[in-house]
Structures are given as structure tokens and as C-alpha cells.
Design a protein that fits this description.
By secondary structure, the protein is mainly α. It has a domain at 49-157 and 242-345. It has helices spanning 13-31, 33-43, 48-75, 82-98, 107-116, 121-152, 158-183, 185-207, 217-229, 239-262, 269-285, 294-305, 310-345. The protein is globular, with a radius of gyration of 22 Å.
């Protein structure tokens, strides 16, 4: 007598995704537990007033990022509240920390929120790509200033030049994606189709189903073309995101300056700009999540080459990472949890107006 096969209940994709993210976040913390302990020890040696100033500047930086995304949403014809954008952008930053992917990992959060609001996913893709282009272009501008300071001190290395070159390649890659989306939607559709199939094969072992409808790739490419076309005639509006991106760099430089002041370490403008430039380059191009292990090893050496005593350079690195990485990590984690609860409970919004 044959037994009727029992169908095992499937875990909803959203719950599975949340659990995977939580597990990755816990693993990220466990791997970094020694660094966290060192950061807490280093914080005790700093001036509390300047440390609080650094934390406040970091919080303003996160808010500035949200305002930048909101401006880009407006450019492609989407409207979203600043509160919602803040939750989405900090969640995206959190995902990019635990799953380094050149900025593409956090796009999942934007796409999921767009789905809940019946927004065009293609327009959201355009927003994220534009944001990354502005982010890398503005950073490259600051890196150029940092390289001037390093050249003056005869401390510019081949590795630093290569890192800047990799950043330039990112800019070219993202620009090509937008160019293909606006000039050759057929070829872009084929590229998206192959990419979707690759992701489905990679994730099938976890979900036992296709996460992406690859057959929709060509429609998505056509929609992206429409999203890019929405930018035409808005040249004046393209300046604001660049200003927000530059403001982001100024705020982070302010965070680093506050850390120097908290430890009473003498500095020059060149030291701050060059140090910040190298720290951000390492953060973006290293394969480890959030540059763990690389930033902590290279940043103190860079500061020491800029005439900062090595012991102080280590403390500066730990406190700066504590504020820019772990403070943002905590906010992003709670934002992600809140966003997922709201998306799970919310009914889809009406479709965006044509």
C-alpha cells in the first residue's frame, strides 16, 4: 500500500530572507567581537563631548543619505516620505555591510519596498544606480585631494592608486548599465535575463524555487529605459544629488576630525582628508564585509605615515570605526526589522500614477 506523499510547508520567502539576514548579522558581530571590545576600550580614552559630536554628525550623515535618495526618487517621478526613505536607506546600508556586493546587495531592500507600494521596480533600480554613481564620483573627488596630501608627504603607494582605479571601474560599470538601459534595451534585457538565471541557480538550494522571474527581464529593461528617459529635461535636478553626496563626505570628515579632537591629537587638513580617503577606499573595495580586518590593519599605518603616533592612530581607527560602522550597523539593523514588519503587515498601495 503506497503512502501519500506529505507536502512539507514552505517557509515564506520574506521570513526566510529575514532569518538569513539576522543569521548573517549575528555571524558578522561574532567575527568582530574582539574589535567591538577594543572599540569600547578605546572610547573610554576619548573626550565625551567630541565623541557625542561625532555620533551626532554620523546621524546627520544617515539623514543626509535619506534626503539624497528622496531627491533621486523625485527625479524619476516617485514620491516617498523622508521617514520611509530613512528606514529603507539605513536598512540597505546594513545589508551592504554584512553582504559586500559593490552596493547591489542593499538594492533588495529598495526593490521589496517598491513592490509593496506598486512602484516601478525599474525606476527604483535607476535610483540605486544613480546613487552609487554619485557616491563614487564624490568619493573619487575627495580621494584626489587626499592623494595630493600623500604625494606631498611622499607616502602615495601603488596599492592606493590601484584602489582608486577599482573605484573608477565601478563608476564606469554603473554608467554603462544606465547607458545600456537607455540606448539598447534589447541587449540590456539579455544581460538581465542571464543575471536573473544565475541568481536563481545560486539561491535554489536555499528556497527550492526561482526568486526572480527571468522571463520578465526584457520588460524590466524596457521599464529601466523609461526610467532613464524620465531624467531627460531635468539637468538642473541632477546637481542636487551630487551636492548631497559631497555633503556626506564633509560630514564623515567631520566625524574623523571630532575623533582626533577627542583624543587631543594634532592634525592638519591634509592628514584628515588623506586619512579619510584611504579609509573609505578600503571600505568599498575590499572583499570582507565592511572592510573588516583590512581597515583596521591599513588605516593606522596610513595615519602613522601622515605623522600620527601609531598608538594614537590605532585608537583613532577603532573609535572612527565604532561610530561610522557599528553605530550605523545598529541603526540599520533596527530599521531593517521595523521595515520588514511594516511591509509584511501592509497591503499594497495603489499603483503609481502614469
Amino acid at each position: 500500500m503506497s503512502e501519500t506523499p506529505v507536502n512539507k510547508p514552505r517557509i515564506p520567502v520574506r521570513k526566510a530572507f529575514v532569518w538569513i539576514v539576522v543569521i548573517m548579522a549575528v555571524a558578522f558581530v561574532i567575527v568582530s567581537i574582539t574589535e567591538i571590545e577594543d572599540i569600547l576600550t578605546a572610547v573610554r580614552s576619548g573626550n565625551i563631548a567630541f565623541l557625542l559630536l561625532a555620533v551626532a554628525l554620523e546621524l546627520v550623515c544617515l539623514l543626509n543619505n535619506a534626503m539624497n535618495y528622496r531627491t533621486l526618487y523625485h527625479l524619476v517621478g516617485l514620491e516617498e516620505s523622508l521617514r520611509q526613505i530613512f528606514l529603507i536607506s539605513t536598512s540597505s546600508t546594513f545589508i551592504n555591510m554584512i553582504a559586500p556586493s559593490g552596493g547591489f546587495g542593499g538594492m533588495v531592500v529598495f526593490m521589496d519596498s517598491a513592490k509593496q507600494r506598486n512602484y516601478s521596480p525599474a525606476k527604483v533600480v535607476v535610483v540605486v544606480i544613480l546613487y552609487m554613481i554619485y557616491e563614487y564620483v564624490s568619493l573619487l573627488g575627495v580621494v584626489a585631494l587626499g592623494f595630493v596630501a600623500l604625494i606631498q608627504r611622499q607616502n602615495l603607494t601603488t596599492g592606493q592608486i590601484i584602489a582608486a582605479g577599482v573605484l573608477m571601474l565601478f563608476i564606469i560599470l554603473f554608467s554603462l548599465l544606465l547607458y545600456l538601459g537607455s540606448h539598447s534595451s534589447k541587449q540590456f534585457g539579455e544581460l538581465l535575463f542571464k543575471g536573473a538565471n544565475w541568481i536563481n541557480r545560486l539561491m535554489y538550494r536555499f528556497f527550492h524555487r526561482d526568486l526572480i522571474q527571468a522571463e520578465q527581464a526584457h520588460k524590466l529593461a524596457a521599464d529601466i529605459e523609461e526610467g532613464v528617459m524620465a531624467l531627460r529635461g531635468k539637468k538642473s535636478g541632477l546637481l542636487a544629488p551630487l551636492l548631497y553626496a559631497l555633503c556626506n563626505k564633509a560630514l564623515l570628515i567631520g566625524v574623523l576630525t571630532s575623533v582626533f579632537l577627542s583624543l587631543q591629537v594634532p592634525f592638519s587638513t591634509g592628514t584628515i582628508v588623506a586619512g579619510y580617503s584611504i579609509a573609505q577606499l578600503i571600505f568599498y573595495i575590499t572583499p570582507s564585509p565592511a572592510g573588516i580586518g583590512f581597515v583596521e590593519g591599513i588605516f593606522p599605518i596610513t595615519l602613522n605615515a601622515l605623522l600620527v603616533p601609531f598608538a594614537k592612530a590605532v585608537l583613532i581607527t577603532l573609535i572612527y570605526r565604532g561610530i561610522t560602522l557599528w553605530f550605523s550597523f545598529a541603526i540599520g539593523f533596527f530599521s531593517f526589522q521595523k521595515l520588514q514588519r511594516e511591509n509584511a503587515n501592509a497591503s499594497p498601495h495603489p499603483s503609481e500614477p502614469a
